[in-house]
Amino acid sequence: MPSIDLTGKVAVVTGSGRGLGLAYAHALAAAGASVVVNDVDETVAEQAVKSITAAGGNAVAEVVPVGTTEAAERLVNRAVEEFGRLDILVTNAGILRDKVLWKMTDDDFDAVITTHLKGTFTCARAAAVRMREQGEGGTLILVGSPAGQRGNFGQTNYAAAKAGIAAFARTWSMELGRANITVNAIVPVAATAMTETIPAFAPYVEALKNGVPFPAFLRKGEGFGTPEDCAALVPFLASEAARGITGQAIGIGGDKVALWSHPQEIKAAYADGGWTPETLADVWSTSVGAELQSVGIPAPKFPEV
C-alpha cells in the first residue's frame, strides 16, 4: 500500500477554523503539507493553527471572509509568501441561511451564494492562475453536499450553490486538465454545527459528545460519522495516487465512500417532425415519464426498537 506523502506541498483550506475544514487541514498537515488555515474569527483560526503545529504540522492563519477576489488573492498570496508556492486548494467555507422559498430574502440568498458559490469561484480562479504559473500541476478540491446532488427542503440558496460547485468541478477538470490540475467535488456527510440540529441525528450527536461512538447503522447504512471520518479523502485526492481522478463527485462519511453519478439522460422518446403538447401528453406516462426521478435527501433508516 503506497503511503500518501505531501511533503513539500502547500495547501489553502477555506473555512478551516473548525468542523470539517479543520479536519481537512489536520489531515493535509499530517501527510506533510504546509497549510494556510482560513476563518472569519481570528481566535478560532489561531487555535486551529496551534492544534496543527502541536501535532507536528506546519500552518499559518489568514483571517478573511471568502467571496471576493481580494480575499482569494490574499489567501493565495499568503501561501506563496509563507511557503513559496501553492499546490492544493480546498474550498470548504460555508454558511447557512435556511428558509422556504416564499420566506427567503434577497440577503438570505445572496449571503449563501456569495460565500459558497462565488467564494469557490474566486478562490479557485486565483489558485488556478498561480498553479498554471508554477507549471507543476495542482489539486482543487471543492466541497459539495448531498443537498446539491438531490435538493433539500428549505435550502434554495445552499442547494443551488452546492449544485453549482459540482458543475464547477466537471467544467474546470476539462479546462485545467492540460495544466495537470485535477478538480474534484467531495460530498461529505458528518456531524457538524450544520447537521447536528437535525432532529433525527441530535440524540446520536449528543451521545458522541459524551464519548459514545456512532452505531454501525449510522456509520455504514447512512454513511454518517465525524468530520475526521471525511478527512482522509482530501490528502488522497491531493496525492500522486489520485493524479488520474478528476471531474468527479465523491461522497464520504462514517465508514462509507461513494461515487456520485453525473446528471445524464436516462430515457428518450422521438416523434417524426417534432412534438406537440398533445403528442407529449399522449406518450408521456408510457415513455420518458414512466419512472420519474426522486428528489430530496432520503430520511435516515433507523433500526426498529
Walk me through the structure:
By secondary structure, this protein is of the alpha/beta class. It has a single domain, classed as NAD(P)-binding Rossmann-like Domain (Rossmann fold, 3-Layer(aba) Sandwich), CATH 3.40.50. 41% of the residues lie in helices and 14% in strands. An eight-stranded mixed beta sheet has the order 3-2-1-4-5-6-7-8, with helices on both faces. Strand 7 and strand 8 form a beta hairpin. The longest helix has 29 residues, at 106-134. It is globular, with a radius of gyration of 21 Å. The chain starts with 9 loop residues before the first strand and ends in a 22-residue tail after the last helix. The mean pLDDT is 95.
Name its key features.
305 residues; 14% strand; Rossmann fold; alpha/beta; single chain; 8 strands
Largest sheet: 8 strands, mixed
CATH topology: Rossmann fold
Widest β-sheet, arrangement of strands: 3-2-1-4-5-6-7-8
Q: Which percent bin holds the helix content?
A: 40-55%
Distance between the termini: 41 Å
Query: Which range does the strand content fall in?
Result: 5-15%
Q: How many strand elements? A: 8
Q: Spans of 5+ residues with little confidence (pLDDT < 50)?
A: none
Structural class assignment: alpha/beta
Cα Rg? 21 Å
The 3D shape can be described as: globular
Order of helices and strands: EHEHEHEHEHHEHHHHEEH
Tell me, what is the CATH class?
Alpha Beta
| Total individual domains | 1
Classified in CATH, the superfamily is: NAD(P)-binding Rossmann-like Domain
Annotation field: number of helices: 11
Tell me the CATH architecture. Answer: 3-Layer(aba) Sandwich
Overall pLDDT metric:
95
